[in-house]
Amino acid sequence: MLTAIVLIDTAPDVIPEVAATLAGLAGVSEVYSVTGRADLVAIVRVTDHDRFADVIADGISKVRGVVRTETLLAFRAYSPAQLDQAFAIGLED
User: Fold this and answer.
1) Computed from CA positions of residues 36, 42, 48, 50, in that sequence, does the dihedral angle turn out positive or negative?
2) 31-81 confidence digits (pLDDT tens)
3) What is this structure's pTM?
4) Yes or no: is domain 2-88 CATH 3.40.50.300?
5) Given CB 3.0 to 4.6 Å as the disulfide criterion, which of 11, 43, 75, 90 pairs with 30?
6) CA–CA separation, 84 vs 48, rounded Å?
């Protein structure tokens, strides 16, 4: 499974409507309203790279109210247990 994190800028008066529309798109697994430079963050999960174009360029970017997107492709996922192990290397209790 391939994952992308998409930062989304929207028109300010339609954030909830855009979020609801995005959450209904195939390939979008989660949508968050956030603080910071973006209005929304969408987590996109697909089975092959070609599907990113379908979901992001042909889907998310064309939703009415979406002004701009920035896509971050995930290289590797780390679970909390893996992070604890990585930072504990060489440390004694």
Assistant:
1) negative
2) 999 999 999 999 999 999 999 999 999 999 999 999 999 999 999 888 776
3) 0.84
4) no
5) 43
6) 30
